[in-house]
Amino acid sequence: MLSTADHTTERPPYAAWLRSTNNITQQFLSLGNRPDVISMAGGLPASELYPVAAVEEATRAALARWGSQALEYGPVEGLPALRDAIAARISAATDGLFTRENILLTTGAMQGLDLIGKVLLDPGDLVVAQFPTYLGALDAWRPRAPRYARLDWTLGEPGFAETLRAAKFVYAVPNYSNPTGVLVPQQGRRALLEAVVAAGTWLVEDDPYLPLQLDGSAGPSILAHDRAARGTERYDGPVLYLGTLSKSLVPGLRVGWVVAEPKIIQMLALAKQSTDLSSSVFTQSVALSLIEGTVEREQVARTVAAYRARRDALCAAAAASLSPWFEWEVPPGGMFVWMRATHPGIDTNALYAHALAENVTFVPSSVFDPSGELRTAMRLNFTRNPPDVLAEGVRRLERAVRRYLAA
Asked: Domain 53-293 carries which CATH code?
């Protein structure tokens, strides 16, 4: 009989990269489901705005159109008809020619980041990343153990050109960056592109928040600038552009994409086949039905109107309650307000525990720093909660700050 008694023999240890990670994403996803907690941590859309009836209708249409094919394993690169649709979308946005050979469909844009790490990064390789950096990107590449250098948008830092030449790729989120909400000016995008081309490296342009333009227009992507500069029929440049339907429709579809020159798309597909064989053809077929009509455009209009009101409510509440200790800019789009401590005694890692005691959450800035040393800021999400709940969340956060400073 097999004994279940405890033995002193130790099993092999977990992989070393796990010692450098954190569970903050698991925490805020879990805490977001607790009714007593106001979560301003997760980058989550407003679920009450999801177009449930439209998704139901699109599901029926997809099954009628594709039948059992929608329930099968699919091509590693994704449903060809949806790849064609995304290629047409990118072609229209960049005034260029993109075909399905330029498109890899992924299980959300996060999988695109993971695959880029698998294809381009070996341990110790250098990544030049926008700072602070999206937590999901840091998590995706953590098992690859890269080194990081800060992206200098002014291109004026001594030795930056040499840094670019040593890097495997540059990572940038020009539109409403996570976590800061910054919209990078067009001049900065063009200058960075020129520097990347001169250095002969890759540029990863992560663009999940493009639909969430709350004030004004984001303007052309870096991909669009590169396509215009090249003037070639088929795109063969250094930009890997990531997009998703998670912000314009619903995240549950888990439909994202990478746009790039065909050779690296083939390499990413090779990495993908060992990850999941293929993403869901079923959700891709539903997504195709949704984007072929007016559902996405109407959904974006409703979402932007709601998010604008929520952003304004959060910033107004913060001005009334948090301005003695923090400063921030009102973001022109996206999902986040980046608050920087002006009080010298505030460490947002330590503040986090006091916030939990007040049943409110945020994300401390340290998780957006590859070295974990940035402890003077916090990211607040405004999209998940209605204005009155955001106002109450800010009041709880004010109490947490006062408790923390008093302690």
From this structure: 3.40.640.10
